Amino acid sequence: MAQQGNLTPADELWMKDLTLVFVFSGGGDGGDVGDGEGVGLPRKRVLLGMKKRGFGSDRFNGFGGKVEPGETVEQGAVRELKEESFLDAQAMEPRGQIYFEFEGSPKVLHVHVFEATAWTGDAAESDEMRPEWFDVASIPFDRMWADDRFWFPRLLAATPFTGYFLFRGEQTILTHVLEDGGDVSFDRLRTTALKQLQEQ
Ligand SMILES: Nc1[nH]c(=O)nc2c1ncn2[C@H]1C[C@H](O)[C@@H](COP(=O)(O)OP(=O)(O)OP(=O)(O)O)O1
């Protein structure tokens, strides 16, 4: 049986809502207007940001952050995309949900993953992020959070997903579960993931 580590009992966990937004381009120079017609078509490039400070710094990621009191998750996603990349989203589609638990912490990050399916503007560097377009065939997974390589294929295929990842520190995934469907119960995913950990 594997070491269970310092895990928080289920009834002491609490959730914090965060957003994570991805923008794709079908080609062009990255400054094109997202026309919303790209869904279902091959995605050529994805806009990622190099996080310059704070949680997850020195990694590439989508754009996002904490949902503020009084706003919906989607409004938070639109706001954070604008603050961090200067792009204006006209339409957002939910693509998945990911729960991140960190060994020794009762706080679970509930990350709502969106695709901005229609957007305008030119991506530009902000205080928090340095944006860069990547070909979808060469996404820099070794410079991203360790979980991204698991769920990115579903994001690229626009297949709804829900995931649970248990981290030790910020580098090591102790166990994870990823399922199709955009709204799988956290409790079920966690139970499955912890059972897997026990059996390792
Ligand atoms: N394991 C993980 N894998 C991943 O791909 N993204 C993660 C992640 N853990 C957190 N994130 C994302 C969610 C969110 O978009 C961002 C962290 O947001 P935070 O609000 O903590 O940081 P910020 O410094 O952006 O805060 P604010 O802008 O003040 O809200 O990182």
Explain briefly what this protein structure is.
The protein is an alpha+beta fold and 200 residues long. It has three helices and nine strands. Strands 1, 2, 3, 4, 5, 6, 7, 8 and 9 form a nine-stranded mixed beta sheet that branches.
Describe the secondary structure blueprint for this structure:
Layout: E1 14-25, E2 34-35, E3 45-51, E4 60-61, H1 73-85, E5 88-102, E6 107-120, E7 129-135, H2 148-157, E8 161-168, E9 172-180, H3 186-199
Parallel strand pairs: 1-6, 5-8
Antiparallel strand pairs: 1-3, 2-6, 3-4, 3-7, 5-6, 8-9
Record keyword descriptors for this entry:
single chain, Nucleoside Triphosphate Pyrophosphohydrolase, 38% strand, binds the ligand Nc1[nH]c(=O)nc2c1ncn2[C@H]1C[C@H](O)[C@@H](COP(=O)(O)OP(=O)(O)OP(=O)(O)O)O1
Describe this structure in words.
By secondary structure, this protein is α+β, with helices and mostly antiparallel strands. The protein has a single domain, classed as Nucleoside Triphosphate Pyrophosphohydrolase (Alpha-Beta Complex), CATH 3.90.79. Helices cover 18% and strands 38% of the residues. It has three helices and nine strands; from the N terminus they run ββββαβββαββα. It has helices spanning 73-85, 148-157, 186-199, and strands at 14-25, 34-35, 45-51, 60-61, 88-102, 107-120, 129-135, 161-168, 172-180. Strands 1, 2, 3, 4, 5, 6, 7, 8 and 9 form a nine-stranded mixed beta sheet that branches. It starts with 13 loop residues before the first strand and ends with a helix. Residues 27-38 have low confidence and may be disordered. The site of the ligand Nc1[nH]c(=O)nc2c1ncn2[C@H]1C[C@H](O)[C@@H](COP(=O)(O)OP(=O)(O)OP(=O)(O)O)O1 has 17 residues, from β1 and β6. It comes from Salpingoeca rosetta (strain ATCC 50818 / BSB-021). Monomer. One of its GO terms (biological process) is DNA protection. One of its GO terms (molecular function) is 8-oxo-7,8-dihydroguanosine triphosphate pyrophosphatase activity. InterPro entries: 8ODP, NUDIX_hydrolase-like_dom_sf, NUDIX_hydrolase_dom.
